[in-house]
Design brief:
- The protein is mainly alpha-helical and 247 residues long.
- It has one domain (27-245).
- Helix content is 66%, strand content 3%.
- It has a two-stranded antiparallel sheet with strand order 1-2.
- A hairpin with a 6-residue loop joins strand 1 (2-3) and strand 2.
- Helix 3 packs across helix 9 (191-208) and helix 4 (77-99) packs parallel to helix 8 (150-182).
- The radius of gyration is 19 Å and the shape is globular.
- The N and C termini lie far apart (59 Å).
């Protein structure tokens, strides 16, 4: 008799008779991530908007639940991240086509001077994805290494950055409404405040569910490193990479 990690029901089968999930799901490893990537391109997932809302409300709980086996209600992290990048890129494209570049929201020099920012935004999925493993190192070293592996720390980053993109998309929509009312554009730099607040929230809320010493100090250090690395990446690393591969 096994106890289902998702709903707590007892079962003897390969799948839980109560919720349908495997009672003891596999550990999150590289094999799990590759399987998830394949699944993203071949299946539709449920729970996307529920996951988005819960990751704003209680990110630490969502991440802990998913890593430890309660997964059926949640969008898987890699597909969650890719969907929000796709939505955000589409919103930016449509806004540019309908109202012109840098009209409602000004991205001037955000990812480097001149045309570099334009090319970086059009290839945002690559520009941001290259940064994910570096960001996961901070979370793993400062918060998770005693309880979880590196790939499980990558889950935190996929969910976290995916939600940051969701909040950025919301910011752009609000900025568009402001532009339609006033005729004034809003700098995308203002969204960095929103990013910082959410990264601080996800690190602190994640620390709440972990059993490590000085966890809130560790959470603050991880948050500072995450934001500092993103800033350095967009200002000094992304521009030469964009010029090299996309221009």
């Amino acid at each position: 008799m096994k106890t289902c990690k998702n709903c707590g029901a007892s079962t003897n089968g390969l799948y839980c008779s109560n919720c349908g999930q495997k009672p003891v799901p596999e550990r999150i490893t590289l094999h799990y991530i590759w399987h998830e990537i394949f699944h993203f391109f071949t299946h539709a997932e449920k729970g996307f908007f529920f996951t988005s809302a819960q990751l704003v409300k209680a990110p630490g709980t969502v991440i802990k639940n998913f890593i430890e086996g309660k997964r059926k209600d949640y969008q898987k992290p890699f597909s969650y991240y890719l969907i929000w990048i796709g939505v955000y890129t589409l919103v930016l494209y449509l806004m540019g086509e309908l109202f012109g570049e840098n009209k409602a929201v000004s991205f001037a020099n955000y990812f480097g001077p001149g045309e570099t920012t334009k090319y970086a935004i059009s290839h945002l999925n690559i520009v941001l994805t290259l940064l994910l493993p570096i960001q996961a190192i901070y979370v793993y070293i400062f918060l998770m290494y005693r309880q979880y592996n590196f790939v499980e720390a990558l889950v935190v980053i996929l969910y976290g950055i995916g939600t940051v993109i969701f909040l950025n998309a919301s910011f752009v929509v609000i900025a568009l409404i402001y532009y339609l009312i006033t005729g004034n554009s809003v700098s995308i730099l203002w969204s960095d405040i929103l990013k910082a607040l959410y990264i601080a929230w996800i690190m602190i809320d994640l620390a709440k569910v972990l059993t490590i010493k000085a966890k809130y100090v560790r959470a603050v250090i991880a948050m500072v490193l995450l934001m500092a690395t993103f800033t350095v990446w967009r200002l000094y690393v992304s521009p030469p990479l964009t010029n090299l591969f996309f221009k």
